[in-house]
């Protein structure tokens, strides 16, 4: 009965008539597990529904569906397992549990002939899990690029539009309730990595540990990078991306540049979006609210309705094909944005560009701003290159006496 | 075995392994109805699969699913009915048939215990039908605004980006294969009205005749409107919109202005997009290719897979709740863009603005361009008003001797 649980309860009140018409049966909340029976709640819920004992739910044979909206791995994963073992369908919004134990729980659900649904675990109200499992089952998915963390997207949008620092944007996000007191999970990309793990399992059949995803947060993104990116017609976003190259899967969570004219670039503030490329359907994008009690509750209720619509023994619609042949690969091929601080004197640009050339790194654009100061920024965008070569070239460039700093290296997604 | 049929055949070749793994059974094409057995085809298909007799399909008890990709109402609707009557599931991409006979066919399919699926009939590869029926079943849908005709979107994009006339943009669209030799159905909005009918049935449970939708095409949209809209930070798009107000449903197909910063505004060229607002999930947008043999074939194959996954007698997942309580309403409340041609002399703006005021039409912005010419354009954007009042005010304004022409009236969607 936290944020999402309360949202689910409200939506069921708002849309009960439609839902029951659709299902041809009643949807009844039988028990709600809470920590404190006497807490004042924002909604009017009968005291007799509340319990502090999980057994009142798990052991009640009249309960068909258990909805887990606790969050965090423990005790949620234990409650989910025990519910499945008792033959109950489970709906959850828990990204940590599904990212870490998804395969095991899916197998257990299959074995017990029940459904395990987790639409709300990624991108809140955007129906990306069902879309990948059902509507895109006809495609070989080649690429997914998502803005799937609303907190960091809000911060980057504020840094860009209101011209404020990361620290001030974070403070604003915390005031608005978009960021938690300890923002680590969001700003360091852990939250996005959990979600990318779930998306990869569903889209590519690949079980990846979130720890194996190359991950970089947004704490190092500064005003300067956002400004230079904008001059070059790019916006900076925290992207979670999964791309198939032949038989390898490249996974990243990192701040990256997207061309302003691409629909992903105008996904602002707390909104989320997912860009998907399939070998038949081509490019698709899905946009909406990735968090919040009503959007997330909407996804949870849709899962409940789907279970209500299908006979449990006949349902194989959420089968995730397992594919362990793909190699996981965190090393990038792509375009990169590089910002240096250099001493402004003749020949510097030539010297650096020559070094890039020696490593076969060709350049898409170069911007040098603020002439006649002693130390100036120098910004490059490369053509498609191997990240390893860029790293090697930058090792050399970093040692030049005229180079004061390699300030930033960001991926460019020229979609 | 036309454009979409060929696409479906190709996708099945490309992705057969994945599809059969998912279904745990083979997918076999048993017969293909063609007009001409000896035509040279772009794909390598065994001659023994082809037939010119529809009975070879409808009367074959081994065929489980009939895929109708003929287009047009006759004979497609007859083939679909006869297939359902023989207990076969039907998948179709036929918007004319579903818009006109959808309710009747859905009822027939329910009665016979088979599935009728038509994801490909609206917005090609974008999975909007399944999303509305399943993922958004937890919501009361309040509004749908779509760019669902690729031909007109291509034309308007070209007019806007390449600064060419409607006629030249249409010619370019025809050369690229985006527009037909007779472009009436697209440019006059008939195609979008068919699709809006289908979306309304699925989202609102309301059966509407396409003829009852207020419809305006893009043939009257000119360079000038696109230019002035752009100055005011709007793009012009052909929108299909359905909006619920209390107990009435307002439906339109018309060219309209959208704020440039809204994600719908950057949907360019042949791409489609649907913006949906639900009472729980809030705003969602879905973007992708609305036509083409592979994207549309992708949607057809997804429908086939869904049927393959579910036991036919248990399946009620595509139930469309019927709702005949909503009144259909074509009269708008909203913001409007009005362009006049007036003689440029002092007091003209005052006189017109006063008249708007008398009809309680308040103005959001006014642009007057090209001073010191004899006849100048005058562009207004109103605040939210009743269209009827605007029409009355313009009747008066039209009679002023200084007003040479009421050149355009366009809806503004300030999403």
Automatic annotation (TrEMBL), chains A, B:
GO terms for biological process: methionine biosynthetic process; threonine biosynthetic process. It catalyses: L-homoserine + NADP(+) = L-aspartate 4-semialdehyde + NADPH + H(+). Keywords: Amino-acid biosynthesis, Methionine biosynthesis, NADP, Oxidoreductase, Sodium, Threonine biosynthesis. Its cofactor is a metal cation. NADPH binds at residue 95. InterPro entries: ACT-like_dom_sf (IPR045865), ACT_dom (IPR002912), Asp/hSer_DH_NAD-bd (IPR005106), HDH (IPR016204), HDH_cat (IPR001342), HDH_CS (IPR019811), NAD(P)-bd_dom_sf (IPR036291). PANTHER family: HOMOSERINE DEHYDROGENASE (PTHR43331). Belongs to the homoserine dehydrogenase family. This is Homoserine dehydrogenase. It comes from Thermohalobacter berrensis. The lineage of its organism: Bacteria, Bacillati, Bacillota, Tissierellia, Tissierellales.
